[in-house]
TrEMBL record:
Name of the protein this chain belongs to: Indole-3-acetate O-methyltransferase 1
Keywords, ordered alphabetically: Magnesium, Metal-binding
Any one Gene Ontology molecular-function term assigned to this protein's record: metal ion binding
Organism domain of life: Eukaryota
One Pfam family hit: Methyltransf_7
Coiled coil: none
Amino acid sequence: MSVQGDNVVVSVIKLERMLSMKGGKGEASYANNSQAQARHARSMLHLLEATLDRVQLEPPEVPFAVADLGCSCGGNTIYIVDVIIKHITKRYEELGYETPEFSAFFSDLPSNDFNTLFQLLPPLSTNINGGSMEECLASNGDRSYFAAGVPGSFYRRLFPTRSINVFHSAFSLHWLSQVPESVMDKRSTAYNRGRVFIHGANESTTMAYKKQFQTDLAGFLRSRSRELKKGGSMFLVCLGRTSVDPTDQGGAGLLFGTHFQDAWNDLVEEGLVESEKRDSFNIPVYAPSLQDFKEIVEADASFAINNLEVFRGGSPLVVNQPDDAAEVGRALANSCRSVCGVLVDAYIGDRLSDVLFNRLERRATNHAKELLEQLQFFHIVASLSSA
């Protein structure tokens, strides 16, 4: 099954070949629109550190491996890897041990802008060649670990068996491996007519998305259970919802299912996009409830749950002047474009994509006060260890 864009054909099933956050360093790039994710990640550091305290330390001569899954192309992943390595180093030092060599693997889909990410990496410490790890860690602003990029879907295997001590993944697991096929089938009751997201959709549509999420997360857990070292741990964060009703997607619903949806309707009403074409575009995101997530982890049985909670992250909008409606509108449009702009560009082409996000900015500007008050993200936060 495929959908036709402006001279671009995107296979729905092979979404992973082109899904990515918007690369580069432009105004709508992920690198310049991930401040909210950084703020949310910092507010959860105490939960991450509690997970790291559970990791079983190996002899210092055994290298310690960290993997960030869904790393994207901004500086947040580099910050988190640095936090993890410094915390583990502190644990070794408190026990009076030498520190091991560290490896950090940055993993995302092959379409990710790894070039921009690697340009943000600090230089490798000169002390890492022949110097002690303590000297390396003391090098101001330098990198104390060996880095590598690992392209591929985290819903399948990425690493050798028993090779990773810590897995970290933030703000990624709500992205599905594909839009469910039934949602794209006009003959199906799950066909998402008139919408581009499942917020407010019918029960058949949302159940198709929920089933896809269950399949994907189960595949993720199976793969990580093979790759995680004995005594290793995982820290996972994804968009979540507080409602038991999956048609209420919370913050994700407000981001993709209100003004963004209305902007698509504008294009249809203006004759720029046919309604059928709009109907066959769907944002492949599912924000699970705590129960959704827990059921899948327990059914897999490979991991013990150390902690599982809903965490209030706050607004995805970072603005300097909250009273400036135009800035709020621009922030909403850039935030939305940074995470789904690549999909939109591929589907309707750059020119119509510009029109769409201009319409979104205009609508968001007109509802700036409401957006600042209501647009809040909740996250599912999971700390898991090998069972």
